[in-house]
């Protein structure tokens, strides 16, 4: 029997880089096509996320990674919430909410004032989660993703 308390949110470990890529490609390819920027970030998350001051979080259930999200540092007090993914069989079980809350807490602990994201309105469950986490829509500008049609932010 599954309980949300069985999920541990853990920090990035190189051993889970393949899970980060696999989970993200699963949702991207389900709805869209992986774009060049997706591929570069997923192939080298340490270069694009970790080394510039960002973080990657994982949701672990037993020995399995069942969710992930990234915090990309975009300014001294600002992060982008990116590459949020939950395994198909774990969706609807509050794993995304747990990751989102952990991401917000990481941002606060890092002294961030703002967190933002880009998404697509077709991803109704994701947009609903972001609203529940306190994100509000803002105008979209200068996105590297063709699929992005909504931008949201949350002030901390």
Automatic annotation (TrEMBL):
The keyword Transferase applies. The keyword Kinase does not apply. Keywords: Transferase. It comes from the Bacteria. It holds the Pfam family Acetyltransf_1. GO terms for molecular function: N-acetyltransferase activity. CDD domains: NAT_SF. Residues 10-156 form the N-acetyltransferase domain. This is GNAT family N-acetyltransferase.
């Amino acid at each position: 029997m599954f309980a949300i308390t069985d999920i541990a949110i853990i920090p990035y470990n190189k051993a889970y880089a393949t899970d980060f890529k696999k989970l993200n490609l699963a949702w991207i390819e389900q709805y869209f096509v992986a774009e060049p920027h997706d591929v570069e970030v997923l192939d080298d998350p340490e270069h694009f996320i970790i080394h510039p001051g960002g973080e990657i979080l994982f949701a672990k259930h037993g020995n399995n990674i069942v969710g992930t999200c990234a915090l990309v540092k975009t300014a001294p007090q600002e992060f982008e919430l990116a590459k949020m993914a939950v395994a198909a069989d774990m969706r609807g079980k509050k794993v995304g909410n747990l990751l989102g809350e952990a991401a917000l807490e990481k941002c606060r602990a890092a002294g961030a004032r703002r967190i933002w994201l880009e998404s697509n309105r077709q991803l109704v469950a994701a947009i609903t989660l972001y609203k529940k986490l306190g994100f509000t829509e803002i105008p979209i500008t200068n996105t590297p993703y063709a699929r992005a049609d909504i931008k949201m932010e949350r002030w901390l």
